[in-house]
Structure formats: structure tokens, C-alpha cells
Amino acid sequence: xxxxxxxAGSDCSGGAGIQADLKTMTAHGVYGMSAITALTxxxxxxxxxxxxxxxxxxxxxxxxxxxxxxxxxVKIGMVSNASIIEVIVRKLRDYRAERIVVDPVMVxxxxxxxxxxxxxxxxRDRLLPIAAVITPNIPEAECLCGFVIESxxxxxxxxxxxxxxxxxxxxxxxxxxxxxxxxxxxCDGQAHWxxxxxxxxxxxxxxxxxxxxxxxxxxxxGHPLPEAxxxxxxxxxxxxxxxxDLGKGSGPLNHCFAxxxx
Length: 262
Ligand SMILES: Nc1ncnc2c1ncn2[C@@H]1O[C@H](COP(=O)(O)OP(=O)(O)O)[C@@H](O)[C@H]1O
Ligand SMILES: Cc1ncc(COP(=O)(O)O)c(N)n1
Hints:
By secondary structure, the chain is of the alpha/beta class. It is built from 8 helices and 9 strands.
């Protein structure tokens, strides 16, 4: 069985973060493991508290994982401060981790900040260089490229610009922009567009976490990146279309769509 590790924050309401990642991994038939960077008190209406793990404890979790069950791929989500980022980079380099997908989580769908401003520079200079692919949404891509993205032409310009910051690839997610839900992968100097119809579903809590985890699973299976993204895109569209409606705000996805009907 393939093994995939998520390094991310916990969402007690089960829609995003570690919980979304592990559900995605199980639905893909891979063995999921987690190193928790922070506990959040959140639900579908917002983030009400964040309790960061001490960086050395994040390191200790990574030692336990890599010294025992080596992951085939790694997904990194919420990393809220620079010291946590530093320890993750050091450990992943020491253990020569492969197939690293970085979702540069900065702000939750509900609008709450999940990363300190000061950590953005560390993310860019230290974490991005070890990623095989990074998966910013439109606001995160704007933060990395420094200009406003209002069209698919802007997405392409931003992708080329961000690609200069890292040896790997960049996937800009269009969920916040297009009338459809078109994402752009810029990989080895080539643009790949993934077109999908916009699903009329306001429940999008955890879409970014889910997509990046699905990509990590597909990379663990050995698919080349453009194909891995295509398969992950099908998964996210399916989980959104399956139409779960839980909570008072932007609700979670339905990861059971691929498993069984009631
Ligand atoms: N209403 C929607 N219908 C179909 N796909 C969507 C919808 N909203 C988001 N997506 C897709 O979900 C994935 C996550 O995108 P996005 O919501 O932009 O990221 P984030 O959750 O990081 O803000 C992307 O593949 C995006 O195209
Ligand atoms: C712990 C944690 N990590 C990430 C997100 C972002 O979620 P989304 O996928 O909706 O952008 C979140 N709300 N909570």
C-alpha cells in the first residue's frame, strides 16, 4: 500500500486541514499519516482559536514517522510561523522526502488568517524550494507574485512569475476567479489548463486541502504531475458535486461519494 503524510493543522469540525487530508487519503486507498502543526478551534462559520505546536514537537513527529514508515509523498498545509517552517524544511531535507506538495495556506475560506505575515518570506525562501508543486489559490498567488489576478491571462502571467521562485511546478487554482472552476498548472515551462464546470454548491470548506492531498496520493501512485493534477481535479469536482450540506456556514465536502451510497 502507498503511504502519504500530511503536515498540517487540525480542523476540529472535520472539513479542512488534517481531517480533510486523511479522509481524502482513505478515499484514494492510501495509508495516511499526519504531523500536526497547530490545533484550530473552527467550524463552518469561522476560525475561533489557534494553538500552535512547539516547533521541536513538530520535528519529533516527523522523526517518528520517517524513522518507521517512510511516506511515498508528502502534503504540507497550514504552517503558521517561521520556526515551524524551518524545522519542517530541515527534517524533510535530512530524510530526503520525495514528492512534496505544498498548499501555501494563508487565509481560511472564512477569511481568518492562518499564517503570520512574517512567515510568508520564510515560506517563499525556504519551503517553496523543496516542493515538487505548490498549489496557491488566487489570493495566495497574488501574495506570491505581487500583482492582482483578474483574468485567465493574469493567471498565466502569475504562474510564470511564481515559477521563477521555485524549481518545481505551480498550480494556480481558479476557484475564486472564473465563472467555471479552471485551474492552471505551469510545469517545465508548459501551461496545462484543467477545465471544470462550476458546481453550484456554497459548501467549499476544505477544497484546497482536499485537492492538494489528492495530488499527493496520485503522485504516490507514480502518475506524472500533469496526470496527477487531472485525476485530483476529478476527485474534487466529485466531492463538491456529491452535495453534502452540513453546518451553518460554508460546509465541508462529501468524501464518501467514491465509496458507497446509503
Ligand atoms: N464551486 C466550485 N465548483 C467546482 N470546483 C470548484 C468550486 N470552487 C472551488 N473549486 C475547485 O476546488 C479547488 C480548490 O480551489 P480554491 O477554492 O480556489 O482553493 P482554496 O480552497 O485554497 O481557496 C480547485 O480545483 C477549484 O477549481
Ligand atoms: C487547519 C486548516 N487548514 C487549512 C484550512 C484552509 O481550508 P481551505 O481548504 O478551505 O482553504 C483551514 N480552514 N484550516
